[in-house]
Each structure stands twice: as C-alpha cells, then as structure tokens.
C-alpha cells in the first residue's frame, strides 16, 4: 500500500526518519515537502516529522466519495501540486459537494481560505481522516490520496507545556524532535530500552515509554533527575497503558555521561547533549571556536565512555549544537572525521546529508545538528 506523506518544517530530517523506519527502498521523495512510502500501515502518532498522512487511491474521487457510509460528510481538499491555486481547489471541492448532494448526501465543506492546502491545524480540529465521513482529499501532481489523519498538535502541546517540571535553562526539547531521535535510534524496533544519558527534564524518556520502549535516563544534575521523575510520574498518571502490567520500565539515576557506568543493558541511545547558553547574536569566530571545542570535548568524552558499554550494532541519535553564522547558515561540531576512531560509523541516508539534519526555528542562534551513529 502506498501512502502520501506531508513532511514537516525540516523535510530532510523528516525523510531521514522515514528511511530509518521503512528503509530507503520504500521511501520516495516526490516534492519539496512530500514523500511516498510503501508500507502496510502508517502510525502517524509515532512520526515526529510528518504532518499529514494519506492513502493513495486509484479509483476516481467521485466513486470513493459515493461509497462512503451513510451520514453527514465533512469534506476538505488540499492540493500540493506546483501550480495549484485556492480558487481551483475550492471549485473542485464545490464540484464534489454538488455531486454528493445529487445523491442525497449532506455535505459540509472545510474552507481553504487563501491557500490551496488546508493548514494542519484546520485538518486536525476538523478531525479529517480521523472520524467516519470526515474526509480530506490530498492531491499532488498525478497522485490522489485520502487522509488517514493529521499530526495531533493538541496532544503535543499538552505533553510539552503541561508537564509539571520544566526548565528553560537546560533547553526545551520538543516532543516531535524527541520522537524523531527515538525513531532514528531504534529504526522502528518493536521493543527495547532507550538510554538518554543527558536526560534533562525527561522529554525523550517520556516519548520513549509512550512509544512502547523502556527508558533509562541519567543526568549530571540531581535536580534534573528529580524533574524527570516528576514528569514521568505525571505522564504515567494520565496514560492508562503505562499503568498496566507489562508496561515499559523506567529507570533514573544521577551520573556524568563522560564517566558513568550504566547499570542495566541498553539497546538504543537517543539524547540531546548540552547545547550551551542561549545566544542573542551569532558568535564571533573566536567565540565560535571556543563553543565548538567545548561541545566536541564533551561529545568525544561521552562517546569514548559509552563505546565499551554497548553492543556492536547499537545505534545512537544525538542532537548536538550548531551555531548560526552571519550569512544565515549553521556550523556545528566537526566530529565526523573522528567517529571511526571512537568506535562508531556514521549512518548515511539517501535523501539527507549530514548537513541537512538540522532542527531550528528561523530566530534561533543555536540550532540542533542531528548525528546518527552505529557502534562498530
């Protein structure tokens, strides 16, 4: 079965996530922010980098709509084609509505406004693809697909903003990025233990248990361990599946990632290392070299310590700092040349180079550079 996926703000990173989960042979980029995935199914709530997912259909849209179950139909149209425009998209929506009305069906159209595509928030709040007869037709070039859902921004916001223990000084890793890191590290494995050796307030641990993995978190700061425990207690208390027998296990302990001896086997490592202090302007060259040196020393010491404690083939997905330069580009920690000496190989992707794996907002000076490694 083929699915058309609408990718997030960093489409190259989204593509890497899809390659990790489905293999590069099953993923095809078809537009700047669109991909086709050949898979038995898509679990959208596990994909941090995908905004919408839709099943590609071969039958005419009119036939598909005519065979919908009885009851009122809520219908929206999104056309991601290169030359799409909102007027033609709306005319197409009216065409389908009139066709359905001739068959005696009650139809509510979801307006596009000034865009040929529905914003993800609009699709989500109208539950398009998520409830019976709540339909979003997604078009791109020769492809026509029917939505199976939109990224649940309400759930992400609650998991991010409603956590009882937050600390802006150690960064606020978005749950979406945490999911991407976990997927890059696990490659979709059904079970196992995810280690976060720089766990902070526990976002990666939280997302790991929600995705069915056991979680093991350590941090240099005892305060962060307390924060993580509080947040994990909170997510467990509001998630029934985490309260059942056989639910993913949780383990927390204080420890310096550069010399700590982890007390239980781990299968995957997903983490964000210390990004440094927030900056309001791009650092000068001298300052940049200092920042790069500090981050490289931390990362190198951690990888050396970890190397003897994990099995061959174990994968790591790490968010490391990258700093904005005056020309708008980002420069990260130059460590790839030393990866093999440390006992790892860098994982490569078909659609994304190392420099493509960035996660940032336009106003951010410090971005996150993602590196994915495999233990030799």
Can you lay out the helices and strands and say which pair or pack?
Layout: E1 2-7, H1 11-22, E2 27-31, E3 34-38, E4 50-56, H2 61-66, E5 73-79, H3 86-102, E6 107-109, H4 120-125, E7 134-140, E8 143-150, H5 153-161, H6 175-186, E9 193-196, H7 203-210, E10 214-219, H8 222-237, E11 250-254, E12 268-272, H9 285-307, E13 315-324, E14 330-331, H10 336-339, E15 344-346, E16 358-359, E17 366-375
Parallel strand pairs: 5-6, 5-7, 9-10, 9-12, 10-11, 12-13
Antiparallel strand pairs: 1-3, 1-4, 2-3, 4-8, 7-8, 13-14, 13-17, 15-17, 16-17
Helix pairs in contact: 1-6, 6-7
Provide a descriptive summary of the structure in words.
By secondary structure, the chain is an alpha/beta fold. It has 10 helices and 17 strands. It has helices spanning 11-22, 61-66, 86-102, 120-125, 153-161, 175-186, 203-210, 222-237, 285-307, 336-339, and strands at 2-7, 27-31, 34-38, 50-56, 73-79, 107-109, 134-140, 143-150, 193-196, 214-219, 250-254, 268-272, 315-324, 330-331, 344-346, 358-359, 366-375. The strands form 2 sheets. Strands 9, 10, 11, 12, 13, 14, 15, 16 and 17 form a 9-stranded mixed sheet that branches. The chain has an 8-stranded mixed sheet with strand order 2-3-1-4-8-7-5-6. β5, α3 (86-102) and β6 form a beta-alpha-beta unit. α1 packs parallel to α6 (175-186) and α6 (175-186) packs across α7 (203-210). The longest helix has 23 residues, at 285-307. It is globular. The chain starts with a strand and ends with a strand. The mean pLDDT is 95.
């Amino acid at each position: 079965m083929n699915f058309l996926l609408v990718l997030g703000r960093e489409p190259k990173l989204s593509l890497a996530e899809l390659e990790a989960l489905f293999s590069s042979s099953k993923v095809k980029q078809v537009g700047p922010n669109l991909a086709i995935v050949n898979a038995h199914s898509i679990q959208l709530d596990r994909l941090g980098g995908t905004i919408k997912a839709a099943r590609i259909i071969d039958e005419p849209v009119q036939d598909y709509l005519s065979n919908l179950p009885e009851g009122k139909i809520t219908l929206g149209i999104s056309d991601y084609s290169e030359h799409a425009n909102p007027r033609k998209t709306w005319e197409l929506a009216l065409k389908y509505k009139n066709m359905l009305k001739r068959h005696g069906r009650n139809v509510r159209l979801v307006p596009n406004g000034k865009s040929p595509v529905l914003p993800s928030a609009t699709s989500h709040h109208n539950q398009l693809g998520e409830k019976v007869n709540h339909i979003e037709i997604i078009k791109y070039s020769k492809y026509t697909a029917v939505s199976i859902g939109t990224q649940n921004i309400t759930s992400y916001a609650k998991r991010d903003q409603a956590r009882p223990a937050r600390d802006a000084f150690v960064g606020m890793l978005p749950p979406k990025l945490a999911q991407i890191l976990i997927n890059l590290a696990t490659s979709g494995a059904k079970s196992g233990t995810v280690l976060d050796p720089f766990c902070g307030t526990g976002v990666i641990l939280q997302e790991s248990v929600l995705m069915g993995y056991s979680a093991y978190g350590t941090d240099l700061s005892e305060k962060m361990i307390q924060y993580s425990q509080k947040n994990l207690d909170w997510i467990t208390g509001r998630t029934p599946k985490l309260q059942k027998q056989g639910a993913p296990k949780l383990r927390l302990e204080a420890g310096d990632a550069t010399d700590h001896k982890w007390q239980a086997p781990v299968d995957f490592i997903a983490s964000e290392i210390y990004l440094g202090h927030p900056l309001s302007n791009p650092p000068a060259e001298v300052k940049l070299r200092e920042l790069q040196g500090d981050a490289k020393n931390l990362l190198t010491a951690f990888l050396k310590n970890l190397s003897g404690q994990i099995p061959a083939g174990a994968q790591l997905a790490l968010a490391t700092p990258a700093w904005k330069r005056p020309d708008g580009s980002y420069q990260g920690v130059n460590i790839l040349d030393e990866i093999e000496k440390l006992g790892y190989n860098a994982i490569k992707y078909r659609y994304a180079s190392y420099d493509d794996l960035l996660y940032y907002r336009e106003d951010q000076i410090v971005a996150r550079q993602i590196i994915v490694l495999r233990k030799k």
